[in-house]
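Page 42, continued from yesterday. The earlier attempt failed because a stray header line got pasted into the input along with the sequence. Redoing it now with the clean sequence only.
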Amino acid sequence: MFARILAVHDGKDTSLRAFTVALDLATRYGAHLHLIYVETVPAFALADVAADGEPSSREECTEVRRMKQLARFKNVALAIHHTEGRPARTIEEFADAHRFDLIVIPYSAYARFYDPMIGNVAARVVNLAERSVLVVK
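This time it went through. C-alpha cells are written below.
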C-alpha cells in the first residue's frame, strides 16, 4: 500500500509520536522511510537557500537520535533530510520530487491559533499534497 513514507519532524513533542506511527507503517508495509526537518527562514533570505539543502552540519537533536535508534531497532533504514524554507511548501515539493506515497505529519499544539482542527503547517500540507497525509495528534 505504501512504498515510500515521509515523516515530518517539527521539533515539537508530537514529532516523536508521528514518527513512531510512520515507523510502524514502514515496518508493516516494508516501505522506505525518510524523515524531514524544514527549518523556517525569513522570507527575505529565501533567495539564498538551495532548492534541496544538504544534511545539516549542526548538532543532531536528541529526538532525531532517538528516532534513528527506534528505526535501527525495527530494522528499518532511515534517511534524514534537513532543509530550509517555508515548511508546508517545502515538505510538499520534497514529497513530490521524491515520489512519496504518504506524508506523516505531527499535529501542532498551537493549532488553536491557526486551524483549530489540525494546525497551520499540517493544514497547509493537507491542502497542498497530491498524496495521502496522516496527521498524528
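Notes: The CA atoms of residues 21 and 133 lie 12 Å apart.
Reminder to self: strip header lines before submitting.
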